[in-house]
Design a protein that fits this description.
This protein is α/β, with parallel strands linked by helices. It is built from 7 helices and 6 strands. It has one domain (2-169): Rossmann fold (3-Layer(aba) Sandwich). Pfam families: Arf (PF00025).
Length: 172
């Protein structure tokens, strides 16, 4: 379900270290994206899939500045599951359960959504994914959605630019 990495490459993030959690259903394109971006340091891969492992994500959340949520925009059969997982993540992320959380740890966390696999026929566009994921329900957290095609590397840097600027502005 997720990949955690730190220290995104310098052209986007300067010398700053950022701790970022990449999440999404299996097959969404997470590994492809990280490979494409040649992310500095992939810290760990969280085993995918089952709802039962969801509690373990929490261990990765403290001091995470951003979540990148990757969606297979062509997988309309599972978009609803993707939505449920997404909101479950934000709920867990928002909750304040010692010893995992403090208000401080959560303050800066922003959310970048990649509407991936735009090259595939029938892929939902960014507006449709926004609707399907019910992104308007996100409260008091900065977010943005970008259309991507990870296999061609399209849209990824635009998304990371937004993330970088948002994190730099410190208002996330
Ligand atoms: N057509 C297309 N296929 C993609 C895209 N991104 C990833 N894939 C393919 O989707 C499959 C799953 O990708 P992967 O990165 O392993 O997904 P993960 O399970 O989220 O890590 C692989 O066969 C990728 O080549 C994309 O933008 N377009
Ligand atoms: Mg993977």
């Amino acid at each position: 379900m997720g990949i955690l990495f730190t220290r995104m490459f310098s052209s986007v993030f300067g010398n700053k270290e950022a701790r970022i959690l990449v999440l999404g259903l299996d097959n969404a394109g997470k590994t492809t994206i990280l490979y494409r971006l040649q992310m500095g340091e992939v810290v760990s891969t969280i085993p995918s899939g089952q709802t039962s492992i969801r509690p373990y994500w929490r261990c990765y959340f403290p001091n995470t500045q951003a979540v990148i949520y990757v969606v297979d925009s062509s997988d309309t059969d599972r978009i609803r599951v993707a939505k449920e997982e997404f909101h479950a993540i934000l709920e867990v992320y928002c909750s304040r359960i010692p010893p995992f959380y403090s208000e401080e740890e959560l303050k800066g966390a922003v959310v970048l959504i990649f509407a991936n696999k735009q090259d595939l026929p029938g892929a939902l566009d960014d507006a449709a994914v926004t609707e399907a994921l019910e992104l308007h329900k996100i409260k008091s957290r900065q977010w943005a959605i970008f259309k991507t095609c990870a296999v061609k590397g399209e849209g990824l840097f635009e998304g990371l630019d937004w993330l970088s600027n948002t994190l730099k502005s410190g208002s996330g």
